[in-house]
Amino acid sequence: MEPRVRPLPPEQWDDFQRDNPQNVFTTLGRHPRLFRAWLGFGSVLLYGTLPARERELAILRTAHRHGSAYEWAHHTRIGREAGLTDREIDAVRRDDADWPPGDLLVLRAADELHAGGDLSDATWAALCERYDETERIELVMLIAHYGMLATVLATLRVPLEDA
User: Fold this and answer.
1) pTM higher than the cut 0.90
2) How does pLDDT run along the chain (163 residues), one tens digit per residue?
3) Which domains, and CATH codes, for the chain?
4) How many angstroms separate the CA atoms of 41 and 26, rounded?
5) In Å, how far from its chain's centre is CA 65?
């Protein structure tokens, strides 16, 4: 599919885009003010308080539920760096996979937020037992952010980079 908004050509990239020449950055960079604000917000979520492995489980499940090949491709690599195995990454796409309770809770939160934009009281109570208030807020914002980003990537038809 042709992009609806083409990535900036390399001669228009800023220093960040030269260091990170991904289409998500060079496409959203066409709106410089929004791009800079989004980068700051996204960085807080990507390098926040949640354990990296759990963060990546939430992102990958959200990418899967939204059908975001772009997010899936990038976060498969990041997930491996965060300690997820290839078997676990593949299992993120399966509803019948056997997960430890903590991982299952993260996946359930992503599923519920995707399906209804809210968490059940039971899921919230389980999150309260596992995470502090800051981490709970961050987890909900993380999942919502990657859902929003999946929508933006799909709507703008941001192409996945060549291998």
Assistant:
1) yes
2) 899 999 999 999 999 999 999 999 999 999 999 999 999 999 999 999 999 999 999 999 999 999 999 999 999 999 999 999 999 999 999 999 899 999 999 999 999 999 999 999 999 999 999 999 999 999 999 999 999 999 999 999 999 998 5
3) 10-46 (no CATH), 52-156 (1.20.1290.10)
4) 17
5) 11
